[in-house]
Amino acid sequence: MAGREYRVPYGRGELTFSLLEGFREALVVEHDLVPPLTDVHGIVRSALRNPAGCPPLRELASPGDRVCIVVTDMTRPCPDGLLVPLLLEELGAAGVEQKDITLLVGVGMHRPTTTEEKVAKLGEKMVSRYQVLDSDPLDGSRLVDLGLTSRGVPAVVSKEACQADLLIATGVVEPHLYAGYSGGRKTVAIGAAGERTIEVTHGPQMLDHPGTRLGRIEGNPFHEAVMEIARKAGLRFIVNVVVDEHARVVAVEAGEMEVAFNRLVESARTLYEVEIPRQFDVVIGGVGHPKDINLYQASRAPTYLFFAPRPLVRAGGTMIIPARCQEGVGQGLGETRFREIVKSARDAAEIVDEARKRGYPAGGQRAFVMAKVLQHCEVIIVGSEHPELVKEMKMIPAVNMVEALRFVEDKHGRDADMLIVRHALHTLPVVRA
Fold first, then answer.
1. 253 and 322, same domain (yes or no)
2. Overall pTM > 0.85
3. How far is CA 146 from CA 30, 155, 163, 230, 273, in A?
4. Whether residues 221 and 288 fall in one domain
5. Fewer CB in 10 Å around end: N or C, the chain?
6. Please, are residues 421 and 427 in contact by the beta-carbon 8 Å criterion?
7. Which residue range is the domain that position 48 belongs to?
8. Chain-wide mean pLDDT for the chain?
9. Alpha-carbon distance 391 to 408, whole Å?
10. Which helix (H) or strand (E) holds 83?
């Protein structure tokens, strides 16, 4: 190894490496550096008291109201431990009592959160004083069927959310593979949804639509569906943030779901979207904690790099993703289904063909989109604690970057054109037209 050192996130730290002798220097892209907010508490409090598109919480809430605040789970870098106490402060000022407030963790199809994770996310005081529940997409007694959206998508959402007098959600606005940008409506419409809603919104017909794209809002049927589901559920107020790669808050909006969300999307675009000159033979994408905790989450990186407005890697190229994957493929029902679908198929083409013929259960969408990536290029996972599972999932395990770069050398030669996206889930490279 020789020459310039490169760094990408790996677990809670970083992986430092150099390219092999004789390799061309890589192009490194990062999103714009925006200074984090210096008085986050003060700015969030001001946003809550001067919301966009609706009255403040002190006017929306009344004594005796049942209030549900839907928060994100541990796979999302949303500072709920900061946002929720300030929401509770405003609700208290409106006369809402502690006993009438439920904090609902929207886990989607992921595994339930542990008590320790709830404490890490919300703080011990919140967990000990308030009712903190995980959503459950499979328990019909805790779900409400709100009918169909205008395009026929079933709207099935947690009862705790739908039956509240005032429904509030937190969230983080960042590029999202299907929704264009996450946050806003999605914490309720997917995070707190039933299995049938997640299955249809993540089904092959939805994901094959050209409008269902990373960074795209206009003409995106997934975005339209989840917006409508959130409205049916009664989502009346959100507080969302944009964060940098260190999970520091750089922008905050609160208020009516659509108005506040759209404002943050504009902020997020200026932060995350970066123009690059061309496609590349090799793309190295950083993930880091908490997304590299398992292969289900870490595999978002290659799908983001592929489903950008134009794939970043050329057909037949190689993606390299360093990720610890200490939980293996993952422990939730969605993660289990992802593993079963990929493991049982002969190859990526069979996964795609079978999905289009027969569909798949919720969680299977990760198998479908990863199979599309694997039809286009190879994916190497570096430094996984479970390399045997990486191989089982039809990706290539590598002990370290040297081994991965030897693969690149054998396949593409030392003249390989290489791109490094340091924060693959927080950067949206757009190939120049």
1. no
2. yes
3. 42, 5, 11, 10, 36
4. no
5. C
6. yes
7. 40-271
8. 95
9. 17
10. helix 80-93
pLDDT of residue 2: 54
Yes or no: say if 105 and 227 are a contact pair by the CB < 8 Å rule: no
**pLDDT band at residue 426 under the 50/70/90 scheme:** confident
Extract the tokens encoding 359: 């569909």
Q: 35 lies in a domain?
A: no
- Which residues, 6+ apart, have CB-to-CB distance to 269 below 8 Å? 215
* pLDDT tens by residue, 38-72: 999 999 999 999 999 999 999 999 999 999 999 99
- Residue among 201, 178, 180, 191 at smallest CA distance from 235: 191
> Are 31 and 429 within 8 A, CB to CB?
no
Q: Residue 19 above 60 pLDDT?
A: yes
Q: Find the Cα–Cα–Cα–Cα dihedral 135, 208, 346, 304, rounded to 10°.
A: -70
C-alpha distances (whole Å) from 265 to each of 54, 83, 244, 252 are 18, 19, 14, 11
Contact between residue 127 and residue 116 where contact means Cβ atoms under 8 Å apart = no
- Select from 122, 356, 80 the least CA-distant residue to 241: 80
Identify which of 393, 386, 274, 377 has the alpha carbon closest to the alpha carbon of residue 28. 274
With H, G, I as helix, E, B as strand and everything else as coil, classify residue 116. Answer: helix
Report pLDDT for 99.
Answer: 97
Q: Which of 226, 244, 271 is the last residue of a domain?
A: 271
Please, which residues have CB within 8 angstroms of residue 94's CB and are 6 or more apart in sequence?
57, 58, 59, 60, 61, 62, 63
Question: Quick one: pLDDT band at residue 363, thresholds 50, 70, 90?
Answer: confident
**pLDDT for the residue numbered 238:** 98
3-state secondary structure of 349: helix
Residues 311 and 316: their CA atoms lie apart, in Å, by 12
Residue 124 lies in a domain: yes
β-pairing, 101-106 vs 27-29, is unpaired
Q: Inform me whether the pLDDT recorded for 396 exceeds 70.
A: yes
Residue 168: which of 67, 251, 259, 82 has the closest Cα?
67
- Cα separation of 55 and 62, whole Å? 13
Could you say which of 212, 246, 271 is where a domain stops? 271
pLDDT over threshold 70, residue 1: no
pLDDT at 246 over 90: no
SS (H, E, C) 210-270: CCCCCCCCCCCHHHHHHHHHHHHHCEEEEEEEEECCCCCEEEEEEECHHHHHHHHHHHHHH
d(CA 154, CA 225): 9
